[in-house]
Amino acid sequence: MNGNQAEQLAIAFLQRQNLILLTQNYRCRFGEIDLIMRDKTILVFVEVRMRSSDYFGGAAASITLSKQTRLLRTARHYLAGLNNNPACRFDVVLLSGSHGQKIEWIQNAFGE
Length: 112
Fold this sequence. Notes:
The protein has 112 residues and is an alpha+beta fold. It has two helices and five strands; from the N terminus they run H-E-E-E-H-E-E.
């Protein structure tokens, strides 16, 4: 399974939880955010991680402090382009298994 397929699984899962997709693969000079979604009035920045096994710590272990810092900077860049300042959070969707059959959704996974 490639990254795009993992993101499509995450989108479908989150849409079943009533989140609305706003942007996919938002890029700027600071980095990339996989998904930007809305959960009622909250803007949600979503990092999608796929791991076929937990041998190296699994998907959650791959979101290092450095990665979190890049995500925060990228989110600030996105927010700077908006006319308002919505409430926001950072979620992580962890997919594991050979076909992403196990999905774990961590809301408010990290922040400032």
